[in-house]
Queue: 4 jobs
Job 1
Amino acid sequence: MKKTMAVITLSFLAFACSDETQVIKQSINNIKDEMVSMQSEMAEMKISIEDVDRKTEANKESINANAGALAEIRSELSFIGNEVTVLKEGQKAPAPGASAVLEPAQTADGENLIIIEDAFTDKSSLYSYAYELYRNGKYAESEAKFNEFLAKYPSDELSDNAVYWLGEIQYSQKNYEGAVTLFNKLVSDYPDGNKVPDGLLKMAYSYGNIGKKAESVVTLKKIVNEYPGTRAFNLAKKKLASMGE
């Protein structure tokens, strides 16, 4: 009888241990499943955060580009306003901040254009005048006025634009080494400026025009990697494709 009870007791204990082991195993499996689920959720959250970061950066570039474009539009409107004032007064009085000396010029379509000379004290008028000179191919005069603007307003919201147009002046005259120097100045002095992507693009073109393909490719890839969503980004991708990169 005692032997029988001992066997029954051992059997019960073995069964209990086995049942407890199964419970422990199931608990461990449940924990593993939860960990896998948590890891999956964390991975998805990371992807979502990276996506938000990319969209935020793209929006930032778009905002900077729009701000720069608006600034240039305001400057052009200011210049036009000065011209209208002079014309209304029969060309007898200067526009605000400028002397009354007038110089005829021609647009690309051959139409006469009155350009107001010369001593601007208003920064918008000075910038607009320099930009108008550039548009009409008066590069030496435009360069002088953009440099005057930078000397007076080195930290203005249009200062990076002024450096960019100085680079464009050199590029238009096929002085590609000079253009590279100025576009490098734009990137180093105004790294957050809205003209940086376009400046890098023209820098890459300039390198290509003087046979420095490796430097051109590096610059184009910098645009693609750092300035998604910009006009320069799209043009840089096309240029790289045409170069077999």
Job 2
Amino acid sequence: MSVSVGRKVPDFSAATTGGEVRLSRLKGRKVVLFFYPKDNTPGCTNEASDYRDHNADFAAAGAIVLGVSRDSMKSHDGFKSKLGLPYELVSDPDEALCELFGVMKLKTMYGRQVRGVERSTFVIDAAGKLAHEWRGVKVPGHVSEVLEVVRSIS
């Protein structure tokens, strides 16, 4: 089962740097889930920093931001601390959320095929429906685009 725009997102729970999060407990708030390949890599650091720099804008628009990768909680704690991230990071080592959102893809790295996370972002509206998705994200300008969409939905 995977998500699709306009449909209710199945309830899920996940471990974060701030404790467990459950989607059903966030009802009434918009949720931005951004999936990224790996802590402490250049593109992921830039994306996480952009969300950090706009976190107050997302909060003012009624949204909570969550970053998701397969990294361990220990890795996430260090990444969050190093960058001063004000939002929580979800550790998804068993790829349950990655599978639900369909972000696992075959990629070519150094001439070899590897399975990894395709940089993707999802906006869930206050009623729990998937309002918008971006797949194969390019980092520059992306967070501003997500913020515009978040501001435009109820």
Job 3
Amino acid sequence: MALLVPYFVVLILLASYGLHRYVLVYLYYKHKENRTVDPAGHFSNLPRVTVQLPIFNEQFVIERLLDAVCRLQYPLEKLDVQVLDDSTDETQAVAQGLVEQHAARGFPVTYHHRTNREGYKAGALAEGMKTAKGEFIAIFDADFVPPEDFLMRTIHHLTDPKIGMVQTRWTHINRNYSFLTEVEAILLDGHFVLEHSGRARSNTFFNFNGTAGIWRRNAIDEAGGWQHDTLTEDTDLSYRAQLKGWKFIYLQDVECPAELPVEMTAFKTQQARWAKGLIQTAKKILPSVIKSDQPFRVKVEAWYHLTANLSYPLMVVLSVLLLPAMIIRFYQGWFQMLYIDLPLFLASTFSISSFYLVSQRELFPKSWPRALLYLPFLMALGIGLTVTNTRAVLEALIGKKSAFARTPKYRVELKTDRINASKYRRRLGWVPWVELLIGSYFALTVYYAIANENYITVPFLVLFVVGYWYTGLMSLLQGRFSGLSLSAETHTKPFPVGV
């Protein structure tokens, strides 16, 4: 009982988060008439917009970003662009040279460099606000390539004075670069299609994603401005603004392309930062949400949104208890395992695969069955992130602070592109070895299940083996394949003259 009680408690909690994904799908389809497409009105006189480009050591992608921003269709007299550079490497000279080039051509772009990095990205955005001239603030991270009509397709949604922010959907420049980027794209598609749309359509809180969106400056100021006590300053500000009564709009049909991480450690770093930041935001914001006069459904959705990453520590506990529980319960008969364990496992795991399959069906009505190939690996990858994200979640729970760990970008778009991986590559120390060890442990559980003819559990256990081994091996072997060479010369453009 001492072992089985926590085993079932963990399974039930995981199942509740899994079932919540079904709720999001239900909200997505139930409120499909609330999909925002056309703006309620149009500005007769376009307002001034400040475009903020926060960067940190982005020498491979800054040129692509600035080129795209300089192609935005908007009156130049109503536009100003801030390059907010906290870089500590060659990016400083590259970015400053590019800014001077575009400014000489008459484009309203200015360069701002900080040396102390206080507050990281949030601090850079707050610093930029001091000199921003726009009534509205558009923000793009370094790995994004906003389309030319981005501002014209978003700004008119802000004619309603109650709208504080407009978020657009991320798409993926290098979706087809590798198996990893394909899976990452499906993961993000689920978030941007079903999570964002489900929440937006049902009038519950959803968040700005830190980029590819446009804010009303008054909403930022009234909510307390950019704050850097969490690693997800975008979600923190979003909740504070919505608690102040500001309304948000999500435009699923407006796409903004971005570059996906091409290395496993970069992907893990990104996911760990998001996991830690959301738990930090939950600790900071959830008490205010619960005490507010918001409807109960808004509070429940906020809880599931901000605490979703608690599932990672729960997965660790489940990993420890799974084999002992299997041994004990084997002697109680397979039928009991069938009607108790199987529904809980299906709620915990099948909900994930069906959730992402629905998102692919919405985006790609003709080719969505292709996603079936990736679903087992998507589930396995989610399992493989458990060690990294559990550490991040525990650090957030105990209040341990950490620096804003950027996600390296290499301007990798095509399968033939090569990256300067040694420049910004991160290592994860002992984590990959722990992942390989846990994967081996689950390989033993697979052997035990087969030996005892408990075949129904084998597919679930194999997911754990593949997930832990895949993330561990990819972390250890990155950069040792021809697709990840140490040359950036095959795809980067020459730096501007004088840089």
Job 4
Amino acid sequence: MMEKISDMPKLQNLLSQQKVSLLYISMPNCSVCTAVKPRLEKLAVEKTIPLYQMDAAETPLVASVFQVLTAPAVLLFSYGKEQQRQARFIDFNKLSQLIDALQKADATLDYEDLFNSHS
């Protein structure tokens, strides 16, 4: 289930505590956002990971903090560090594969090893 958040410090705290989490940044009256949302919710449920939503119109700071220029934007995090971002056109297969890799990764695996094995 997607959790809508409007408080940046709360969001950053939540992201930093999760091994894998997703942030969905949307805008009102965005038809692509409307199409992406249910697929993203389904993915989060299937992978049992938290999914947070921020509306860039309600909380403009989110676009600035995460340097998002278009909506929708989907950012994949591991313990508060951005691992992947996709905007406008979301590749759900790639996102799913990266989530799987992060969920299987142990603490000793470094960033380069993780993404070089899936290039």
